[in-house]
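Field reference: "sequence" (input) and "structure" (output). Example, GDP-D-glucose phosphorylase 1:
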Amino acid sequence: MAKSAVEFFSYTEKDFHFQVQCNNEDSNFDILLKRKWAKAEEDNLLRYSVKVQQTKVVEGKYGFYAQLNIERATLRRRPDDITSMIQPFDSEKFNFMKIPQNEILFNIGNCDENDIIAVNVSPILWGHSLFVSKCTSGLPQQATLHSFKKAIELVLLSNSENMRVLFNSLCANASVNHLHWHFYYLNHRMLLESISLEYFIGSVYILHDFPAKGFCIKFSSFDYQDINKYASYAYKIVSCLQENQIAHNIYITRSKTDKDKDIFDDIRIYIWARKPSYGIKNTNDFIIAACELFGHLPIRSQEAYESMHEQYISEYLNDNTNDAFLSAQKLIEEILSQNVENKNDLTLS
């Protein structure tokens, strides 16, 4: 594929939206993404439609948001057989260099980096897309600092409070061993946008009062608009998990510093260490990946959707995160204990 054949979206920090309100007008990024995604839908690139789906809020204090999506289980591409956190990229297997050119919506940022936005042909929600970092470099599904910063920038490029960006590591229900992030518009208010957090160490907080125990880094903990330090600090946590081969999921969301106000003036990065999942992931019913840990539950069978209740979900989330959280907590504390006084002294490289 020639780069010139793909539209290029260029941006600077002037295009970032550090504060958004509900029902804002679309940004240039939103307009382009939605136009390209609608064209992909019109051209029948999707394996199924996500326009008509059943959704419900599961009764209880956590407000789990369940969404019935049967066709994602039956019609999606067969996931990779993942056996290790350090599994190398395999060019013979499916990867994003093999997708048709019309699935590539546009190139984003610096075209020399070959960062692309592609439509997810097996979407969770309308607009569900993929950010593939340095696509032709053939990087395995291990988050890089460059991709982490770009993931945060995707949130800021949108003028919507509903933009979410997520990452599933190897052995954490990633479907493809080729570096990529998911993003979509989740038009529903979620508990983890404003839930109280427990201070841990440095600029890290703990998501404690929730079944999926994890870590959170807030943009408001850093010098205003310093994306480099924010990305570098969050990446230090993820790098710790990668180096110790601890499976993990990441979810980036807009949030509020004051939950009683209408302004989304903060960003939260949630990072969960979790029980590893090996082999070809089960695509039926309910699996644990980033959006599920956040409380957004794509359900893949009518029976499971009808019978889903908070106690079951809570036990499932806790079982997949509790032990790994305790192990990761010790490692992260050890790494960050030397940086408490200079908690933001990290630079993007």
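The radius of gyration is 19 Å.
DSSP finds seven helices and 18 strands in the chain.
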